[in-house]
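Aim 2 progress update. The chain analyzed this quarter is reproduced below.
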Amino acid sequence: MRYALKFLLVALLLPVTACTTNSKSYREITDPNLRYIAVIKEMRTGYAMVIYNPVTCREIGPACGFFRSHAYAHQRLNHTLIDVPSAYPPLFERQADCWAAKYASDEEVQAALVFFGNQENLRKYRVPGDAEDRAATIRECARQAQKPAAGTD
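Predicted structure tokens:
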């Protein structure tokens, strides 16, 4: 209940942006207290809401766009949405990484690869899964999508 009230207050006070990816709408909202970079929640209004930490996003730059795309991918791929990103099955995480590698901007994909290659990032930020495996998935899916980021780390 406490979290729901806090979320409602944040939702009312902070700006909401509407985004489209592959002609499907979703909304984004910031939450500076979010423990993860980005998560997605299904709202009662029928929209999926990507919630991201703006403080973390300022720190990690364009990689934040990749993580926001990754969160949205869970909804696009019809995954059951889970409040705790580390609770997603590994297959869902690989699928969301692959989707984001294909649809996020080249700059965001490249930034995600750099992010996963930086041990300090992995210690500082809550990112589920094995960084090397995630980077390999991102690289392979970017290659399939013929993105320039596919050949670099």
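The mean pLDDT is 84. Strands lie at 16-21, 24-30, 38-42, 48-52. These observations will guide the mutagenesis experiments scheduled for the next reporting period.
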